[in-house]
Design a protein that fits this description.
By secondary structure, the chain is an alpha+beta fold. Helix content is about 35%, strand content about 25%.
């Protein structure tokens, strides 16, 4: 599986790249077991600084946070997950957990052999 990492206002360290690579390998093995062949995993990470007003006297515990999206292109429907965290690794870890949950839902809806319904003819067709 090919993956693209794009960053905005931050630089990705080699340790973070390896961390993303490990999660991508886990995801690709999970998808190969499900007989899915995704072509692209697109990761976008942005660095933000929390904005507080001058009248707000409370201190912010961590003024910098990271957010972004992970988009997994699959045959029927692309899966998009939003990420947010205090560090890049935290954001990536949480978003890959969300992505695996969405993948289980995708598997049940779009792959008939992995569905919880035994007989798909009983499902009413929308129209």
């Amino acid at each position: 599986m090919r993956f693209i990492i794009a960053t905005k206002d931050c630089a990705l360290s080699t340790a973070s790249k390896e961390y993303v690579g490990q999660h991508t390998k886990k995801l690709s093995t999970l998808l190969s077991k499900r007989s899915l062949s995704p072509s692209l995993l697109d990761i976008l990470i942005k660095k933000h600084k929390r904005v507080t007003s001058a009248s707000d006297r409370s201190s912010v515990d961590n003024p910098i946070y990271y957010d972004g999206t992970i988009k997994l292109v699959l045959p029927k429907k692309p899966l998009v997950v939003r990420m947010i965290g205090k560090t890049i690794d935290e954001a990536v870890k949480n978003s890959f957990a969300k992505l695996t949950k969405k993948l289980e839902t995708y598997k049940g809806k779009h792959i008939s052999s992995n569905s919880k319904y035994l007989d798909h003819s009983t499902i009413r067709k929308g129209g």
